[in-house]
Amino acid sequence: MAGKAGKMTMEVKRIIIVTVVCALVTAAVVIVVSGGQAATTLLVHAGAGIRPALDELGALFQKETGTRVDYNYKGSACLLPDVCVSKKGDAYIPGELYFMQQAVDRELVKSGYKVVASMTTVLIVQAGNPKQIESVRDLGKPGIRLGLGDPQAVAIGRAARECLVKAGVWKQAEKNLVMSAQNVTELSNSVKMKHIDASIVWDATAALYNEKEMVTITIDPAHAVCSPVPAGALKFSKSPRDAQAYVEFLASPEALKIFLKHGFGPPMKTDKACKTGER
Which CATH architecture does the domain made up of 119-218 adopt? Predict the structure, then answer.
């Protein structure tokens, strides 16, 4: 019996030693990856239409700094309540200055936010353009199944309505509305699947599709809407230095190349730049 007890004691000791060693190795790996400090994860609230570029930029930021970036993607108007209620997160990137200014006014974001890229409205129609739609003015013609973003939930909804108002066809086009989407990707996929005939989306969204999936039509500069993409660190971030470093990274020339690759435009000074060509 004594022999068995001794063996059990040795086995328990061995298990404890192995467990401690594994824990130490795991801790060492974390320290090495993070450059001597506990690894940081940032939570970034971002507009759904910015996702293609931000996914790549987040991976690059982690590669360069060791700081991981997790995203909460939603329509821009839906993000603001998330931030207001949860008081959690490290950075905020809506698809429109309107929502960023609201965050600043509510003292959620530092006033020194950065404009990191821009988006411009474009018209998308089904592959082959069976309804022969040539401009936003055609969206007011009878028989067009039109889908637009919900202006209360997503930045592209507000922008699309402004396009149609500028073109003088909002009332006619409103009669053709068969879909009100909560994000811009929903609109582009609906055109691709032929559930609707046409929509107005961001150029960066349209760039994700080829001509066999849909046709992209440039909107007359007099009617188009350009939107700066702002990024700011949240005041209640638990990792303020890392959050600000991430925002600065998005404003870097290195990040701009990735934004441009994904169909975004360069930073612009105001949301009126589309008409004047000031980019």
Answer: 3-Layer(aba) Sandwich (3.40)
